Amino acid sequence: MPVISHRGAQMPPSPIRKLVPYADAAKKRGTKVYHLNIGQPDIETPPSILDAVRHTHMTVLEYSPSAGFDSYRKKLTEYYKRNNIDVTPAQIIVTTGGSEAIMFAIMSCLDAGDEIIIPEPFYANYNGYATGAGVKVVPIPSSIDSGFALPAIEVFEKAVTTRTKAIMICNPNNPTGYLYSAAELDVLRDICLKHDLFLFSDEAYREFCYDGAKHISALSLEGMENHAILLDTISKRYSACGGRIGAFVSRNTHVMDAAMKFAQARLSPPTFAQILGEAAVDLPLDYFDKVHAEYTSRRDLLVSRLKAMKGVKCPLPGGAFYAMAQLPVADSEKFCQWLLEGFSHNGATVMMAPAAGFYATPGKGKNEVRLAYVLNREDINAAMDCLEAALGEYKG
Amino acid sequence: MPVISHRGAQMPPSPIRKLVPYADAAKKRGTKVYHLNIGQPDIETPPSILDAVRHTHMTVLEYSPSAGFDSYRKKLTEYYKRNNIDVTPAQIIVTTGGSEAIMFAIMSCLDAGDEIIIPEPFYANYNGYATGAGVKVVPIPSSIDSGFALPAIEVFEKAVTTRTKAIMICNPNNPTGYLYSAAELDVLRDICLKHDLFLFSDEAYREFCYDGAKHISALSLEGMENHAILLDTISKRYSACGGRIGAFVSRNTHVMDAAMKFAQARLSPPTFAQILGEAAVDLPLDYFDKVHAEYTSRRDLLVSRLKAMKGVKCPLPGGAFYAMAQLPVADSEKFCQWLLEGFSHNGATVMMAPAAGFYATPGKGKNEVRLAYVLNREDINAAMDCLEAALGEYKG
Question: pLDDT value at position A17?
């Protein structure tokens, strides 16, 4: 039998999907499962943007241009301008989800054997794409004890080697919910300029910043015109995860030329969801107000419930819709599996993402979980009832 | 300034999109351009499958499962059964276009430095994905003089090295239109089994076989359960290129496990076009009859017009909707550019794909072009009038 590739063997399985079979089995037994494990919001996709797809008059479902429809790229510049990001359509490639933007960045900027510095814990799929590309992820620690703030500049300096080509951040952060400060972004800029590194900035959660904090894009950092690459997606912004539309944005023409060749190889991003994405730019400007208020109240509820549990630690996340919690258990993966296999409370249980999968350093995050507050307050309350009861009962 | 990756620099630009700026300029001057350069059919997407998307009742555009909707995978097994391919839903991963299926195959089965044997000329994006993955393409010659039949088995044997992991074919072939015979597929099977190689079979054009010939899938070859990987797409089948839905199909569980991890990294294939693809399986079985008749008449017209031109050679393609033609010019890329820059006939010109971009061997195919017969007969006739006049006028 022919054997698969080493990269296929080494590719990490998705930490958020590993427990899915146990959840399926729980549902088969009639147990309700509250899904706090995955960033799939229950927020309605704005009906007007779904209608834009429903009302298309096309007769042939054609390829779009490899960079995306010109009309959409032009429209996106309006969206970015409203967010203090001045870009031209030529500086935007529409991608198949934020995932493809991540891949274009890694493939265009790093070769096999090169290194990318990423503060951990980090979005697990960064590791997947790096592994596929033969790129080494060098983690920089951030810790629940300091609320997942970036470490001091010296820690970055120590991590830079001759093979380092880029630093990657997610801001606000998945999985921690941490929102980087202007001072932290200045630190990142200084390191990137000093060592000539790319800064990949995943800003999928740009609109989800709380307590009056303002989001700062990597593309607004002075002097970073050739260094900053913005990775974006409409998935969370408009609750449109299934559309698979994102964007790769940079002012570096060499990077854009390289990314464009990867874009041409896959021909084009999906047509239908580009229509949806274009309509989304024209949503009333107050669209996010309601969504924002909803997520704020969910966050406040979730964190206050967690903090009230004995032995549980949970810093208040400043953005995105995730919280990391430290639990009084030795192995959160075993605990999460037990929640699905061996526990129920009022006929229900809760599914969370064990945090170890978000760390590159073996052994880290073993007593942490990531919770996505993508359910309504009533469900979050019920899920927290389950978790509280489970922690009381768990012997593991 | 940070520098892009070597793979980003080495990535070949798309040979079919290189001349697009010249075509755009021609259109700006008011010249009509007949597009025979790209496999974008003018055939109507079946209205009923577009309606399936228009009539969706979703309120949240959610992620689908990473392998695609269960209902769609199940439905696809019906489609494959009708085509003498017995597979289960677990042997299918729904992909973002055929492009992603190609990528999953290369990434799951080959490492950087490994070799893949591909009969040339071949679909240019195979080279793009191989380059991105650090995989070496080893071309095996097929020639216009023998109608692009596969070379003798000895030629394959000579190309196999210790790094060879796979053979890749497109059947029926893009760009040549060649349909592989049962005998040729048996040769491929014997080599794959002897040297334990994967066989990647791109069957995007399965339905487009002419003159009563039957298509044979790599998945129907005996003894190849662990070796054959089918790469598929709905793009050409239902004129649904913009949907970006394909499939990766194999009975090798190790390969499926590896591909599944790459599938999880990009979360899910696009939701809307999966709905369209699922509806397509239920199209009346005679749907292809009309499409098939249309392409047959286009092929016959195109080839007879080409053969009537002095110095032009064009073997009759047995499948797909492409023809390769040898022209009485020294450099078909220059000629194609001149057609767009310096020529018009009755206010129109024709755009073709220079064939050199489909060959891996430098210098090959320099006097050949690929023509996609994706326009109606009237337009094909007008395009051939242009080509005939141009060949008479061209001094290059």
Answer: 76
